[in-house]
Amino acid sequence: MNDHYTTLYDTFGWWIPGRFSLAQACCYRWVENAADAQRIALYAVDPEGRLDTWSYDRLARTVSRLANGLTRMGIVRGDRVALVLGQRPESLAALLAVNSVGAIAVPLSCQLGPDALEQRLRHAEARLAIIDSEGGENLLRIQHRCPSLSLILAIDMINEHVMSWRTLLARQEEHFTPLPMLPSDPALLLYPQGPAAGRRPRGLLYAQVSLIGSLPGFVAAHDWFPQPGDVLWTQSDWSLGTTLLNTLLPVLYFGRSLAATAGRLTAWRLQALLDQLPLTCLSFPAAAFEHLRETWAGMEIRPAHLRNLVVTGRTPPSGLSAHCQTLFGIPANFVYQHPSEAVSLIGESASQWPSRPGSLGRAYPGHRIRLAHPDPAMAGNSSNTGTLEISRTDRYGHPDPALALGYWRDPTLTLHQPIAPWLSSEEWLHMDEAGYLWPAADNTPSVPT
């Protein structure tokens, strides 16, 4: 195939509007005319297979009602609102409503235990939490240990200590004018999970414009999304910043459709989902894809509409594209997940440049990376091994909108971060002559003696 990478990378430039917000870009602008308002925003499928369809009009009305309710509850610009919700339409409606009133959304996984939830809620000083039955019980156990958490709004839960989502929304008007936002205004406070989380919570603050920063990687990974009729489903946790910024919000930004599935997903349930919905794009964490690959060994699945599959992680599963070609009849794109930055900066795009099996891909347009070697003699070598560094600016000197504003309320971590032109990481990688990145065989930097 032809390699269009150099042309795409060299001709790309950021355009940042003077005003920008997640709520306006992903919701309200799609109801400014009647035709767009009837587009399908979300297909919600419950564990029994029942389908509930949300148009952009329904999404906007729900967001507006909740935004009015949040205002009446006293939530103001800059307040932190925790979202402990499963994979459901209300999860996105809550995030966009929080954004509409100028507050900062703090998505937290339903899989977190009580102690981990308490650490994050106290660190964020969240005033309100919006919960459902999937993760709400753990939060209710530790509410009394979170001094700032004075309000809890619950979906489909009956508890004397919470306010009912349905009751609150029933009392509100269906129109709300979102607060005007600058692209640099804070939007999301994200806490990493897994090894990157560490022993104490370190929340990264992301601006409204971080969504724009995610678009080159999203478009490329999904082979030039959007295409007519695109519907995307992901198995990734909806509360993760990587899922929000690299998958969910970009789909809504382009006015296309998401599929939401409640409950545990098995290979057989995914097969039923592929039969039930016109899914065109799938996204899996690497570990989940490996599990499905074992479950579906020897099968051939040919969904009528499927055109793209993305697998995300730190390293690509072995034989990724070959297995996807055998199983689904299409190749897969691997997208590298940086351990601290939420936005995907590196990955593949099979329709635009050749894949090299086993590699992490190349830097997506708009993002600059380099490898720094502890040996000064190796510095500046474009085909070497070293720690991954990310530039704060693109090739034209414009700020990279994908990067975090900094760590939340931790001066020891943020003091020097905004000044450094390159952000360093502990990722030890190899770069070949064509700019493809590879997991380094020796994962321990060393300096010759």
From TrEMBL:
The keyword Magnesium does not apply. Keywords: ATP-binding, Ligase, Nucleotide-binding. PANTHER family: ACYL-COA SYNTHETASE MEDIUM CHAIN FAMILY MEMBER 3, ACYL-COENZYME A SYNTHETASE. This is Acetyl-CoA synthetase. Belongs to the ATP-dependent AMP-binding enzyme family. InterPro entries: AMP-dep_synth/lig_dom, ANL_N_sf, Mitochondrial_ACSM. GO terms for molecular function: ATP binding; fatty acid ligase activity; fatty-acyl-CoA synthase activity. One of its GO terms (biological process) is acyl-CoA metabolic process. Residues 37-375 form the AMP-dependent synthetase/ligase domain. It comes from the Bacteria.
